[in-house]
Structure formats: C-alpha cells, structure tokens
Amino acid sequence: xxxxxxxxxxxxxxxxxxxxxxxxxxxxxxxxxxxxxxxxxxxxxxxxxxxxxxxxxxxxxxxxxxxxxxxxxxxxxxxxxxxxxxxxxxxxxxxxxxxxxxxxxxxx
Length: 108
Fold this sequence. Notes:
Blueprint (H helix, E strand, L loop, with lengths): L18 H17 L4 H10 L2 E4 L6 E4 L8 E2 L9 H23 L1
Antiparallel strand pairs: 1-2, 2-3
Helix pairs in contact: 1-3, 2-3
C-alpha cells in the first residue's frame, strides 16, 4: 500500500499528535526516500499529515504550518512526471522539521 492510499493520509493532525502517529509519518517519509520516483501528490499527503495547510501564494502549491508559523513554507512543484529525487528529498527533509517540533512538544 502506498502512502496516498493509507489511512495516515486522512489523520487530523491538529486534533492530537502522538508518538504513534509521528512514527507512522516518519516511516512513510523513509519509504518515500527509498522508493525514488516520487509524485507531488505523495508529498502533498505527507505535508497534510504533519499538519500543513495549502496556502495560495507563489507559482507552485505552497504548504504552511499554522501550528508552527516560524517554520518555512514548503513549495511542492506539480509537474506531469515524477519529481527529481534531489528536489523530493529536500522537501522531505523540510517536512522532517515539523516532526522534530512535534517531538519537542510531546516530550514536555
């Protein structure tokens, strides 16, 4: 099962983020890194699962985190083919910053 079809995609992160959900998101990110040939829709699903919302600015769809407004906005290019692996890995790395922030909150 890929991440797009998984129940994780439909989690409402703003309700309650716990260690189990964080682990699932991290596993999904690692699977995408290993997979290669990542589609923008898969990264959109990860962005949504970490609590980011679509914001209408810029040329490409931009995702912002309302819970952590100091995190940088992330643009995920939408092209007809798969994303360049370096671009995709950079986006995943930026999304991992959201996970780090949630982990800091859960520790407290």
